[in-house]
Amino acid sequence: MPFSYRVDSNSNFQYSRAQEDELIVEDLVLDPDTLTEDKLQWVRQVAMNEPGLKGRLVSDDMQATAVNVLVNIRGQPASAEQQAVEYTNTYVLGENALSVLVDPGKLADF
To answer: Total structural domains in the chain?
Structure first.
């Protein structure tokens, strides 16, 4: 997405865990193509109990997920905001999805 500098999703959520005397921090989903049913259940359990995910990137009822993209259009031409919205509508939301709402200078939550 044009002008994006950070993307947060349930896949790249930085999950922390202890292993013996080490602190391990890694993406919650390392390789989505190799998820087994057991691993998927574990990811669901983490999402249901992780305050950084539940109610933010994953709905409380676990029926929807979000991707949060931060964009910076400061210092860009006036068309930058529209470029980011058009990219989102075309490549992220698709033709049957709702349009992205725009606050002046930033993409709003959708």
So the answer is: 1
The model scores a pTM over 0.70: no
pLDDT tens for the 110 residues of the chain, in order: 888 898 888 888 999 999 999 999 999 998 888 889 999 899 989 989 998 888 888 888 888 888 888 889 899 998 998 888 888 878 776 654 544 444 434 434 43
Query: Which residue range(s) make up the domain with 30?
Result: 4-107
Q: What is the DSSP string of the chain?
A: -TTEEEEE-SSS-EEEEEETTEEEEEES-S-GGG--HHHHHHHHHHHHH-TTTBTTTB-TTSS-B--EEEE--TTS-TTHHHHHHHHIIIIII-TTSPPPPEETTEEPP-
Look up tokens 């990811």; give the residue.
43
